[in-house]
């Protein structure tokens, strides 16, 4: 599975959009981009995934660049409850999930 | 829908002792995963089961760790003997299927926090 690179930490003001970047320059054509988040003392929670096209669900939007070498997770209106560690993972459908150390997002009032 | 259940939630043992963790996945989920998460790091996959067969155990320290998934449902992870560096949170996750689907969302349990003294 391709390796991902994420900034170790980011801050965001409550109510503003949080944009979390992820680099995956060695991604293969059959690898999906997944995002999970982990709130303190809980197990990771799935957020969203995509292959080529941008995706949106009730939690977030995922923007994947045309060359698929990077992506951005967007939380449109961050709340204090969005403070968590966010993991970007690339994997094939049947492949294992290799978690890096993620980005710690702190939403501030 | 009930989530992934794990027990115990906390365990403290001394080094060289044995310990076992239990996981009950979401009903109907074919794939079960065990992860080790050391403080400050992301989860590391230890073993992946598809029904009751092992798909990937390449990162499982087989000299001291073992896992089984009897009847393709519940699973246990055992450490014998434990070392200080085994102190971590052990997460169990399950998913509906490992292949053939468009995606493979993993549902995680709350984890078991192990402290080895």
Topology at a glance:
The complex is a heterodimer of chains A (109) and B (117).
Chain A: E1 9-13, E2 18-23, E3 32-38, E4 45-50, E5 55-56, E6 61-64, E7 70-75, E8 84-91, E9 103-108
Chain B: E1 5-7, E2 10-13, E3 19-24, E4 31-37, E5 44-50, E6 53-56, E7 65-68, E8 75-79, E9 88-95, E10 107-108, E11 112-116
Parallel strand pairs in B: 2-11
Antiparallel strand pairs in B: 1-3, 3-8, 4-5, 4-9, 5-6, 7-8, 9-10, 9-11
Your description of this structure?
The complex is a heterodimer of chains A (109) and B (117). Chain A has strands at 9-13, 18-23, 32-38, 45-50, 55-56, 61-64, 70-75, 84-91, 103-108. Chain A is mostly beta strands. In chain A, strand 6 and strand 7 (70-75) form a beta hairpin. The radius of gyration of chain A is 13 Å and the shape is globular. The mean pLDDT of chain A is 92. The mean pLDDT of chain B is 91. In chain B, a hairpin with a 2-residue loop joins strand 5 and strand 6 (53-56). Chain B has 117 residues and is mostly beta strands. Classes of the chains: A mainly beta (109), B mainly beta (117). Chains A and B meet through strand 3, strand 4 and strand 8 of A and strand 5 and strand 10 of B.
Find the structural class of chain B using helix and strand composition.
mainly beta
Oligomer: heterodimer
Q: What are the segments of chain A in which pLDDT stays under 50 over at least 5 consecutive residues? A: none
> Proportion of β residues of chain A?
over 45%
**Mean pLDDT across residues of chain A:** 92
Globally, the shape of chain A reads: globular
């Amino acid at each position: 599975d391709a390796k991902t690179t994420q900034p170790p930490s980011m801050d965001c003001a409550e109510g503003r959009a949080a944009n979390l970047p992820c680099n995956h320059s060695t991604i293969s054509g059959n690898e999906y981009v997944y995002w999970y988040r982990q709130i303190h003392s809980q197990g990771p929670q799935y957020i969203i995934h995509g292959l080529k096209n941008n995706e949106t669900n009730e939690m977030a939007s995922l923007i994947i660049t045309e060359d698929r070498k990077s992506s951005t997770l967007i939380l449109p209106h961050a709340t204090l409850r969005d403070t968590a560690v966010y993991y970007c993972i690339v994997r094939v459908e049947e492949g294992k999930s290799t978690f890096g150390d993620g980005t710690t997002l702190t939403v501030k009032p | 829908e009930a989530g992934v259940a794990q027990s115990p939630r906390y365990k403290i043992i001394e080094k060289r002792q044995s310990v076992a963790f239990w996981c009950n996945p979401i009903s109907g989920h074919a794939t079960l995963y065990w992860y080790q998460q050391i403080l400050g790091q992301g989860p590391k996959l230890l073993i992946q089961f598809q029904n009751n067969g092992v798909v990937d155990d390449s990162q499982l320290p087989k000299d001291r760790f073992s896992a089984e998934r009897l009847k393709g449902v519940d699973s246990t992870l055992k450490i014998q003997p434990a070392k200080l560096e085994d102190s971590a949170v052990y997460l169990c996750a399950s998913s509906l299927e490992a292949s053939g689907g468009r995606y493979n969302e993993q549902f995680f349990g709350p984890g078991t926090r192990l402290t080895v003294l």
